[in-house]
Design goal:
UDP-n-acetylglucosamine1-carboxyvinyl-transferase, Chain, 31% helix, cell wall biogenesis/degradation, RNA3'P_cycl/enolpyr_Trfase_a/b, alpha/beta, peptidoglycan synthesis, 24 strands, four-stranded mixed beta sheet, UDP-N-acetylglucosamine 1-carboxyvinyltransferase activity, cell cycle
Length: 418
Amino acid sequence: MDKFVIEGPAKLQGQAYISGSKNASLPMMAAAILTDEEVILSNVPKLKDIDTMCKLLIKLNCKCKRLDNDDIFINCSGINSDFAPYELVKTMRASILVFGPLLARLKSAHVSLPGGCAIGVRPVNLHIAAMKNLGADVEIEEGYIVAKAERLEGATIYFDTPTVTGTENVLMAAALTKGKTIIKNAAKEPEVVDLAKMLKVMGAKIKGEGESTIEVEGVSKLRGVSYRVMSDRIEAGTFMCASLITGSTIELIDAPLYAMDAIVDKFIEVGGSIRKIDDSRIEIKGKKIEPVVIKTAVYPGFPTDMQAQFMAVLTLANGTSVIEETIFENRFMHVAELIRLGANILISGNKAVIEGVSHLDGATVMATDLRASASLVIAGLAAHGRTEVLRIYHLDRGYEALEKKLSSLGANIKRVKQ
């Protein structure tokens, strides 16, 4: 098992390239099930979750392999299995994304209930109810979702709560479903929009992506596609937090600012500044850290996936900040670890009150989930002395070569075998 060893405080300078979005890549990989032609995705990050999804597709008898650089090749013309086993699905919640495509393509699905980060209850009941509305018979048997559908037909589907993977599953299933499907209270996330754009290039008829109501007119066949995945807005936001906490000026290449309004607003409110250099490069600068109030919300609100990173920054703010977490009930597990570094944080229900301190001190801390890992790395960049971040396998699920990118900016960070 690996750990990060960080010697701080750091001062960063240089350029960081923002990788492709994991959360956009995974549903696109699942969407390859919908066609018997070749799918090539570019700008796909080199991450464990991507490897897991590739292994899952191979298990279904698809071809999946990484080409040179950041391209993934998928061909599901020979798919003949609807079985997504527990040993693959347990490590990655996004495995549920094969549920809709399998039902649409094979009229059956046998998918293990998913795992992933332990940040709270993320039920699949919304997915199941949606597929039932499309005409599938769905049961839970021995930890598996077992679904069959002689014929899927378009329907109106209302989500009580906007769900990203639920919206994506319905989008993919509805693309090959007879008739019109209307998704109400749909997720508006940029990754959902990117998936819809890819499906449209494949021949799907979709209207309203990025809005609360999406309409899908089913077609009989989808074609292959070559598509570039959007850049990762959460990775870009994480580097913004790194610049804030270290008071550094760095350049980001391919940061998707069009999808980051809430993150950018808080970055500026905390004390950062952004200057556009050209169409692909921005300069970000961290200055004095001001206290703020943050409330997580579904897109276009402030993303829960950036809450931990901003909390790390706010531990050094000039005053008191409040973060309210409205998405996941267990997403303050990083607080105890930040306190080990010297942070002053109190938890009351779903709110964290952060009283800024003058400095952080290095310590050994343990990552509890993907974004918590990032928050501890960010805090370690600013802490005085040596910080060891354990269990970074969480981080490897969502950040491509983070320590190498930070090292290229001047950080003293090393990956070490425990």
